[in-house]
Amino acid sequence: MEKISIIIPVYNEEENIVPLTEELHKVLQGYDFEIIFVDDGSVDRTAEKIQSLKKKNITLIEFTKNFGQSLAMAAGIDYAKGEFIVTMDGDLQNDPADIPEMLKKLKDEGWDMVTGYRQKRKDPFFSRILPSQIANFIIRMLTGVHFRDYGCTLKVFRADLAKKIELYGELHRFIPVLAAFEGARITQMPVNHHPRHSGRSKYGIGRTFRVMSDLLLILFLKKYFLRPMHLFGTTGVIVLLAGVLINLYLLGMKILGNDIWGKPLLFLAILLVIGGIQLITIGIFAEFLMRIYFRSSDKLPYRIKKITTGKQEE
To answer: CB of 135 within 8 A of CB of 150?
Structure first.
């Protein structure tokens, strides 16, 4: 039987650990699965609660500090052993009962990823739902990848796809976009969503601005990741040519006996030439950095304090 790895980033979720684990074991009876909790620097008793479970299929990865949900998810995926990977939140708002149906859809229909969308969200409208709707609309418009709910953590992947996706910053929201860039076959399906009963939400309007900054990165990755010279070089050449043309015009003015010193146009021409040369230089350096990146050794962007593997069930 193919193994399922369930990745759950957690941060100060001590009250949700036990009921979530019980629910997962209930709905996944008959499946070969492991649960990987990634404690993202919790300051409560989250790690102790997980260690107390004493389940042989549970692994706890503890970060040295809070690195964010994206890197917590990346760490879980790195250490996953299953052929299929499930990501979900640790706050009991995602419903474990949706996992079997999502897994069945992925297998039966040959998808690489099935991403959920929350039909009836149980969140505050102005602080959570409205910012999410705005962000989803902007992401769809700018990336050309059309899904209803980019913020839903509940997803099922094939492991080979999940391990190709590089996550950092707030990029976990863009997993369907990053997967699409890899050529993955992706579909979506409705999933349940429950109100938070314990703990505090880690999301808010402030995160929307970080998501927007990461969206700019996504757009750069989509168009210029493998060819940064096309962005910096092309822009640099245009700016440089504009500066050269203005300088040629000023040279003609000088030959005709006009005084050009101190004219704003002269300073603009000089700035354009210097700026163009700098942009072209940045493009060349970016190309070298890309080659170094692909040849460099694997260096993890997070630091792990401890990994606790499951103990034999009592």
So the answer is: yes
Q: What is the pTM of this model?
A: 0.78
Question: Beta strands of the chain (E only): which ranges?
Answer: 3-10, 32-39, 58-63, 84-87, 113-118, 155-158, 186-191, 304-308
Tokens of 187: 């579909």
Instruction: For 4-37, write each residue's pLDDT tens digit.
Output: 999 999 999 999 999 999 999 999 999 999 999 9
The 8-class DSSP code of residue 97 comes to G
DSSP string, 162-173: HTT----TTGGG
Per DSSP, the three-state class of 67 is coil
> Of 77, 89, 90, which is closest to residue 34 (Cα–Cα)?
77
Beta-ladder partners of 52: none
| Bridge-based pairing state of the strands 84-87 and 155-158 | antiparallel
CB 219 within 8 A of CB 174: no
Which pair of structure tokens corresponds to residue 286?
């970016």
Q: What is the DSSP letter of 231?
A: H
CA dist list (Å): 68 to 93, 202, 238, 311: 19, 10, 39, 27
